[in-house]
Amino acid sequence: MTEIAFQDFYPDHMAHCYGCGRLNEYGHQIKSYWEGEESVCYFKPEPYHISIPGYVYGGLLAALIDCHGTGTAAAAGYRAESRAMDTEPALRYLTASLHVDYLKPTPLGIALVVRGKVKEVKGRKVVIEEWISANEIITVHGELIAVQVPDQLVQELLQVQK
Amino acid sequence: MTEIAFQDFYPDHMAHCYGCGRLNEYGHQIKSYWEGEESVCYFKPEPYHISIPGYVYGGLLAALIDCHGTGTAAAAGYRAESRAMDTEPALRYLTASLHVDYLKPTPLGIALVVRGKVKEVKGRKVVIEEWISANEIITVHGELIAVQVPDQLVQELLQVQK
What we know:
2 copies of one chain form a homodimer.
Chain A: E1 33-35, E2 38-43, H1 58-80, E3 92-102, E4 112-122, E5 125-134, E6 137-149, H2 151-160
Antiparallel strand pairs in A: 1-2, 2-4, 3-6, 4-5, 5-6
């Protein structure tokens, strides 16, 4: 496991995400790291992240697949170019699509393990396969397609909303 | 639009969901209604539900697709049997899988409209097509497969966690 999480390399304007932004004080602030060829994120849901009492609600699990997936996509993009995440030019990724299969109910009250594996890096598109385990039992399987967006486009989006 | 939301018919033990449970004081408490053949839910994200500043984060959009979808599935199940949601036997649905396509960035600061349409009711399985609009522009498309679970199974799950 490296010392600095993927998300801690995001520039400030990409670090406000409720799921993974280090600058969002209300958010989940998930942290993802390489562990060999897989990426990993440990996350303990809050007691109120309920589906039915005792189990984690599906929206949070989808959010973990989303943010761990885009984090892994970013890290994979840099890895594909054999360079560190703090080197230029910066690579920015947004989620194009997300698929989540809920295999079993996910128990609440313990740290979940979210793992990711790069299935494909093709041009601007990165496909990440993911799974979430609780007590070493896989409860969720996911797949995410992330697309690299030019920083210029991100800047334009930020300008429109000002 | 009917007066009582789909979620307000859920029995207490199914009403703690962070996305849609009326008994979860920390959660989103979304409300879904029929509007002709479509179901609709209006939801205004909080200012901190950010992806990049000014836009809604994907995890919340997935959560809306999830909970509006299971609500619509439940309502569709009763409709398929031509009976009201407060009649017995009760029908309980959980999400089996969720697919979300993020078509455009979704602006923050306005009420979003989540719409659903029943694609299929086949035995215990219900397929719901959904889309989210902001300022009348569709920004997200989703599809959800919900499965009806016997209340006995729900009760067993609740017991395990006690």
